[in-house]
Amino acid sequence: MITGFLSLLCLGLCLGYEVELENEKLSKPSLNALPGPVVKRSRNVTLRCQGHFQNVTFMLGKLQDPGYRQEQNSSGYHAEFLLTDLEPKNAGTYFCAYKTVGSHGWSQKSEYLQLEVTDDRVELGASSTKTDTRIIFVTAFSCLAIFLLFPSVLLIYRCSQQGEFTG
Fold first, then answer.
1. For every one of its 167 residues, what pLDDT tens digit does the chain have, with 9 covering 90 and above?
2. Which residues touch 60 (CB under 8 Å, ≥6 apart)?
3. Residues 85 and 44: beta-carbon distance below 8 Å
4. b/e 122-155 (16+ beta carbons within 10 angstroms → b)
5. Inter-residue contact 41 to 120 (CB < 8 Å)
6. Which of 52, 74, 129, 161 could form a disulfide with 79, with the two C-beta atoms 3.0–4.6 Å apart?
7. For the sheet containing 78-83, what is the strand order?
8. Chain centroid to CA 40
C-alpha cells in the first residue's frame, strides 16, 4: 500500500511540475549585432542572442520573412548567428527567442533589431558627384580670373607706354 501511495505521490508531483512549466513564461532574451547594426555590403555580422538559462535552443527570426528561421543549441547563455556576405536583401528587422528542454514553447521574443546593409557603390557615386562639382567650380573660377587678368595686363601695358612718351 505504501508503494502505491508513493507512486501516486511521485506521479502527482511530476505532473504538477509539468503544469507549472507550461504556465511559466520564459523571460525575454536580448539581441545584439557585432560589430554593429549598420554593415557594409559583402561584409559579415554576428547576431548574438543572450538568454537567461544554459543548455537551451536559440532561434533567430526575421520579421519581414516568416519562413526565415535559424536554430542553434547552446550549452551557454547565448548563441551567435553569423550572417556572411551581406546584401541589401539581408537588411531587415530581426528577433530571437529560446526554449529550454522542459518548456513546450518559445520564450517571449527579444526586442527587435534593425539591421542595415549599406551599398558602397551608392556612397562612391555621391562622393564622385561632390568631386565633380568642385572641379567645375575651380575651373570656372580659374577661367574668370584669367579673363579679368588679361584686360588688367593690357591696361597696365598701355598706361606704361603712355608714361614713356610724356616724360
1. 565 544 544 444 444 444 444 446 789 999 999 999 999 999 999 999 999 999 999 999 999 999 999 999 999 999 999 999 999 999 999 999 999 988 889 999 999 999 999 986 654 455 556 667 777 767 776 767 777 777 777 777 777 777 665 55
2. 47, 49, 69, 70, 71, 72, 81, 94, 95, 96
3. yes
4. eeeeeeeeeeeeeeeeeeeeeeeeeeeeeeeeee
5. yes
6. 74
7. 30-34, 45-50, 78-83
8. 9
Q: How far apart are CA 77 and CA 56, in angstroms?
A: 8
Beta-carbon contacts of residue 88 (< 8 Å; ≥ 6 apart): 41, 117, 119
Read off the DSSP letter of residue 109: P
HSE on the CB side for 165, CA within 13 Å?
4
Per DSSP, the residues of 111-134 read PPEEEEEE-HHHHHHHHHHHHHHH
pTM over 0.90: no
Residue type, position 146, single letter: I
- Distance (Å, whole) CA 6 – CA 11: 8
Q: Are the C-beta atoms of residues 76 and 56 closer than 8 Å to each other?
A: no
Q: Which residue has the cell 508531483?
A: 13
Side chain identity, residue 60: L
